Amino acid sequence: MLKICTVFLLLLTVSCANFERRLADDLVKSGQIKLNRCEVEGFDYSGIDSYLTKGKLLKVLMIHGIGTHHPGYSRLIQQNLADSLGLKVISRQPKNISLLDPSDNHAPIGNLRITFWQNHDRSKNMLFYELTWSEITAPYKKILSFDTSEQYSEFRVPFNNSMKVFLDNALPDPLIYIADKHDLIVNSGKQAICWMINTNWDDIPNNQAKVCNMSLEQEINGLADENVIFITHSLGSKILMDAITQIADNIALHENTASFRQAVSKLQNKEITIFMLANQLPILHLDQPLPRVHNQISAYCHPQGAHYRQRVFKHVNIVAFSDPNDILSYAIPQNFADKYIDSRMCPLVTNVSVNVAPEISAFGIGVVSPVEAHVNYDRNPKVINLITRGTANFREDKVLEQQCRFIQMKNDKTMTRLPHGSRMGRRRRGKRANSRQHQRRD
Q1: What's phi and psi for 93, nearest 5 deg?
Q2: Secondary structure string (H, E, C) spanning the chain
Q3: Which of 375, 361, 371 has its CA nearest to residue 164?
Q4: 1, 27, 78, 439 — which has fewest CB within 10 A?
């Protein structure tokens, strides 16, 4: 009996030791597991680097989304883009314009910060315009500030408290945008566009509060002539699209003079590209009115279309990035683009499903922080490469080809048909002939 008890105790000790070893092993292995998904599905588009090679000054406008932001929030994505583009020289100080509402010259509606980037031989030049509109919604968020005060937060576990802080800071913005401050926030975006197409580095009104005034014809000429790219994050996508849609509506209502027709004609041959990070267009269109022109892309965007001469742009390339673990972002289905994006813009939508946040694994359970999945786009090498390189030369780009999978889309009317004498064509014709013979026999 003593021997049996001794053996039992030894087995129990070994089992406990094994359990402790597995527990320690799990703790050691707990940490970040890199997720590698990168699926690109859509149309060919050019990256920022192709705009720099045109010998013209490139202007990039960044519009942030949900959550309180402060001037300088875009510095990380600027740095990563500049590194990828070979821009190693930066202005000593950025310039700032305090934006005012054009309908009320005393109402502040945001800050526009401009940074100048160059390469060493000055052959590549980029002005980065960063719009911060958070001051419009910040006063309303104070209503929720008691919820994250120490009086309440000390009773939450750290993860839940972090989520509470994030949601209280982020969720009010789309509600305020849709319900109350839509026009004011869109005006902030329109003023940013106006200053972008109306200024160069030397004539930026630094540290001044001003309104940018341009006629519609001047605005159209500016958009057509300037070398511009747009980058948006979450709600910023909706702000930019609403601002551009207003331009399309204003064009339709404007007096059709000879000079105005000439300006519109230039814009109709212009492609613009919008990189949407953590895109939120689908959820922000819930219960919103449809654009004046929708479900008519073929009529407006194909040369044989009935309204081809009424289009606004040649194409608007929309590249929508979303992490599958980002609970606040959405892909853009092609039928959504048909119905909810103004057909006069001739949208070409490309969706990028990419992991920007790692999986945190502990005790066999994998979790991805939804906050990191929503905000980490600006530091992800695949996202940066897809913005700077584009997909136009994807098959020749060994870096992108190894990082991502690209499924190219084409409009139905441009798909290549099978040659008349192809093997498949003969097989189909043979099947049809056999079918007719069977029918005659029957």
Answers
A1: -130, 140
A2: CHHHHHHHHHHHHHHHHHHHHHHHHHHHHCEEECCCCEEEEECCCECHHHHHCCCCCEEEEEECCCCCCCCCCCHHHHHHHHHHHCCCEECCCCEEEEEEECCEEEEEEEEEEEEEEECCCCCCEEEEEEEECHHHCHHHHHHHHHHHCHHHHCCCCHHHHHHHHHHHHHCHHHHHHHHCCHHHHHHHHHHHHHHHHHCCHHHCCCCEEECCCCCHHHHHHHHHHCEEEEEEECHHHHHHHHHHHHHHHHHHHCCCCHHHHHHHHHHCCCEEEEEEECCCHHHHCCCCCCCCCCCCHHHHHCCCCCCHHHCCCCEEEEEEEECCCCCCCCCCCHHHHHHHCCHHHCEEEEEEEECCCCEEEECCEEECCHHHHHHHHHHCHHHHHHHHHECCCHHHCHHHHHHCEEEECCCHHHCCCCCCCCHHHHHHHHHHHHHHHHHHHC
A3: 371
A4: 1
pLDDT, residue 327, reads 86
CB 60 within 8 A of CB 128: yes
Matching residue, tokens 């069977």: 438
N- to C-terminal Cα distance for the chain? 90
Please check whether residue 418 is in contact with residue 425, taking contact to mean a CB–CB distance below 8 angstroms.
yes
How many whole angstroms separate alpha carbon 200 and alpha carbon 345?
A: 27
- Amino acid found at 423: R
Alpha-carbon distance values, 171 to 46, 248, 285 (Å):
33, 30, 16
